[in-house]
Amino acid sequence: MTFPADDSQLPQPEQVDPETTTSLPGSPVKGGIIHVDYNVEGSDVGYRWYARQKLTPRFPFGFGLSYTTFDYADLQVEEKDAVIQARLTVKNSGERAGAEVVQIYIQPQDGRYVPRLAAFERVELEAGESRDITLTLEPRVIASWDSTRSGWAIKGGHYQIRAAKNAEDAGLAAGLDLKAREFGY
Q1: CB distance 51 to 58 below 8 Å
Q2: DSSP H or E stretch at residue 102
Q3: What are the two backbone dihedrals, phi and then psi, of residue 163, each rounded to the nearest 5 degrees?
Q4: Largest CB tally within 10 Å, which of 78, 90, 113, 151?
Q5: Which residues belong to any copy of the Fibronectin type III-like domain (predicted)?
Q6: Could you report how far apart the first and last alpha carbons of the chain are, in Å?
């Protein structure tokens, strides 16, 4: 979930006018109904909408607090047999045991879409412990729907892959050239 810095960052920051709306029994809005236009965000909902609008939320998607700290190292990415994987080392650099959710984001170099969460994994580590993990990226997150062919298509080209702690974190980045491909449901 993404928490905005203030109401002005919301996709629809307008207030409900109780003079022009009617209440429904049990409505949490006193004196009015909130009308939501889902066309404002389009397919970029949540953290992707904030990225597209170049807004910095108070707490970005994936943000979490911990009693310890984690470091990432040695990000490597590859596509083999139409499977895209990211490998990295996660280390608990703090003094307590804890859990970290490693998030992998992908974005095409041409910027046709904002970074998308393509994989994640929760890792529990003792203080000072390191672990190598491998995450497989979800192909439909990378692809776009091609309505003329009724299937998903990944456009070939250069992509940036980022291992991050949340949607706003620069994290570790690596590049990958993907081959174009199509697939059905």
Answers
A1: no
A2: strand 98-108
A3: -95, 120
A4: 90
A5: 100-167
A6: 28
